[in-house]
User: What shape does this take?
Amino acid sequence: MASAPASQLPLFYQSLVPLSTQFHPHHGLVPHTNLNFTRSTHAIPLTVDEFAVAQRSFPIVFGMGESPAPLALLSLIDGLNLFLDADGKWQDGAYLPAFVRRYPFMLAKLGPDATDLSLCFDDQSGIVTADGEEKLFDGEVKTATVDRVLDFCGQFESAVARTRGFMEEMEKLDLLTDGEVTIQQPNAEPVVYRGFRMVAEDRLQALRGDQARKMVQTGMMGLIYAHLFSLPHITMLFDRQQARAAEAPAS
Assistant: This one.
């Protein structure tokens, strides 16, 4: 049974093996009530399908590098998730990204020549085990649980494809610029945050009329404004970090 190298795995995944009746005939889902696997994550990938609701909870920015992806910022400090409490519970009322909800499953190609995606899971997660009560197979037949997981993962992959198309258009139009946010504190030096990309509003405003109309028609303009409207949440994250630091016991 092949397993993908850890260095090639997405965020959160420690291992990845294909789900099969041969190797997992009695496996099922173990009830998990916490999201502790997200605790040391300060940014989680988003798809464009999530922008409208995600922008209400946290800033949406874009990663650095040659292929930047949309990200939900959970804090401004590496290794800190401000939306997770001490018991591993996500903040009430805050949006939970699909990337988190998909774990420990994902669709993946089983080899370089494979054309189809297969349902795989992280067998180090402790969520899919031989003792799991919510069974994945009934003999040689997959259960409704697997059907549900496949449907969700399939929808997620479709959203990822739409997100890639969106990012390609953003690159073609040269709308992204290196981001910088300065937070002015009373009686203190300003704090500057960098290391992300954002839409350059001056470039957006300078688009030709036909380009802007096309973006409105395709929904791209709405996605861009969801990103822009989310950016004030950066100040909210800073304030929450300050409050968290003040609550921490002195060492």
Notes: The chain has one domain: 6-246.
